[in-house]
Amino acid sequence: MSVFIAIVWRELRRAWSSGGLLMPIAFFLLVAILFPFAIGPDGRLLARVGGGVIWAAALLAALLPVERLVTPDAESGMLDQFAARGLSDSLVAAAKMVGHWLGFAPALLVATLAAAALLHLPGNTLVPLLAGLAIGTPGLAALGVATAALVAGLRGAGALAGLVMLPFAVPLLIFGAGASGDQPGAFKLLAAVSLLLVAGCPFVAGAAIRMGRS
Amino acid sequence: MSAGLSFADVACVRGGRSLFEGLRFALGPGEAALVTGPNGAGKSSLIRIAAGLLPPATGRVAGDGARALLAETAALDPELGLAAAVRFWARIDGHAAAVEAALATVGLEKLAQVPVRLLSTGQRRRAGFARVIASGAPVWLLDEPANGLDAGSVRTLETLIADHRSGGGIALVATHLPIALPHAQEVRL
User: Fold this and answer.
1) Chain B closest CA to A54's CA: distance in Å?
2) CB of A135 closer than 8 Å to CB of A193
3) Partner residue facing B52 (CB), from A75, A77, A83
4) CA distance linking residue A98 with residue A95, whole number of Å
5) Please, is B25 exposed, middle or buried when counting C-beta atoms within 10 Å of its C-beta (0-12, 13-18, 19+)?
6) Across the interface, do B68 and A84 touch by the CB < 8 Å criterion?
7) What is the Rg, in whole angstroms, of the alpha carbon atoms belonging to chain A?
8) TM spans, by residue (chain A) (predicted)?
9) Under the phi-then-psi rule, with left for phi > 0, alpha for psi from -120 to 50, and beta for the rest, what region is A185?
10) Is B186 an interface residue toward A (CB < 8 Å)?
11) Range list of β-strands (E), B3-43
């Protein structure tokens, strides 16, 4: 257990110290700023599409740090050292997911407040939006680490990561945007999808790390 | 300390090519094995099999006691100070207090605060060695430990391995450079 916490803490430190935190948040806000420019200043229209825009922006922001999650550790031999100590690759991947989530999700929730104001979202949709993001971002983080493990060491890993990750994130996007609208049933489906990703992705990532080793 | 490492009829196949087969040796407390062979003979693969990173194609690897691996890379966070980077692993191994002594043993105590990314190749190698020492593991698996080291550091390395063995430890060393390991079994690939 203490090893798990040590890995989580290390992920957090790396996320916060390498500017890895600032980039996704800045990117997220930038997307939220761009949309009113593209659509126009019609407050009613912005309020209607706002929830979906924020979810799409969150998805893209979660994709940004994917390249730094697994590849550097595979290259520097860190992953081999964990394995040589008898830790399963899936456990290491699970710890990385927790660390990745703590690294970007709380800041993303804070940034959502600003983005909601930019998109003219009505106050009563803010709470379901934040709750939906809080439920959905663990799934995004899990998917991010699994994707990072799958594309680790490949050429053009960044572009490939988008192709691998975004299709699997579609259910999160659909139910997340639905939950921030007026479909309360979407919450349960969002939670179910997020839970499935959180439960399954450590094994996918662990298997990918093992494959990369041989 | 109780320690052991044994290979029983181990074979290694990499990319469809058989590197070695029928390999057997056993090491008890205080013993060492020197793995030699030309480039590509499977020295690193043997070390990785011993570390549990690669499954052997056939045969069995058994052992007693924790194993510490020194591979090609130092496996230290480049942005951290040297002492902090080594301490990350020492904490996981439950020997956080052993870091300063380990750094002093390899002659890097003056660089404890210097970020790992600024270290030279040889210093990084010694830093990796400090990680192995600080782990407190009885079984050392060293892959080309003399790479990038100057003559003086190779002497230090030999002394460290000898001290480790006299304390009941085991060393499995793969190298293409001459390293003096008195009374070591030779495993020629």
Assistant:
1) 33
2) no
3) A83
4) 5
5) middle
6) yes
7) 17
8) 21-39, 45-66, 101-121, 127-152, 159-177, 189-209
9) alpha
10) no
11) 4-14, 17-27, 32-36
Q: Which B-chain residues 132-171 have CB contacts (< 8 A) with chain A?
A: 141
* B58 φ, ψ (degrees, to nearest 5): -140, 170
Place A1 in a pLDDT band, splitting at 50, 70 and 90: low
Nearest to A213 among B53, B68, B88 (CB): B53
- The CA distance from A23 to A139, in Å, is 20
Please indicate if any CB of chain A lies within 8 Å of the CB of B54.
yes
Q: By the 8 A CB rule, do A87 and A3 touch?
A: yes
CB contact under 8 A, B92 and A75: no
Quick check: B1 pLDDT over 70? no
**A179: distance to nearest CA of chain B, Å?**
41
Give the pLDDT of residue A123.
83
Q: Do A77 and B92 touch (CB under 8 A)?
A: no
CA-CA-CA-CA torsion for B60, B64, B68, B69, nearest 10 degrees? -10
Nearest to A85 among B76, B92, B141 (CB): B92
Over residues B47-60, the pLDDT tens digits come to 999 999 999 999 99
| Residue B49: closest C-alpha in chain A | A84
pLDDT 10s digits, B110-165: 999 999 999 999 999 999 999 999 998 999 999 999 888 899 999 999 999 999 99
Q: Which of A187, A83, A146, A26 is nearest to B92 (CA)?
A: A83
The ipTM (two decimal places) reads 0.91
Phi, psi of B143 (to 5 degrees): -100, 110
Interface contacts (A, B; CB < 8 Å): 53
Pairing status of strand B17-27 against strand B4-14? antiparallel
Distance CA B142, CA A58 (A): 45
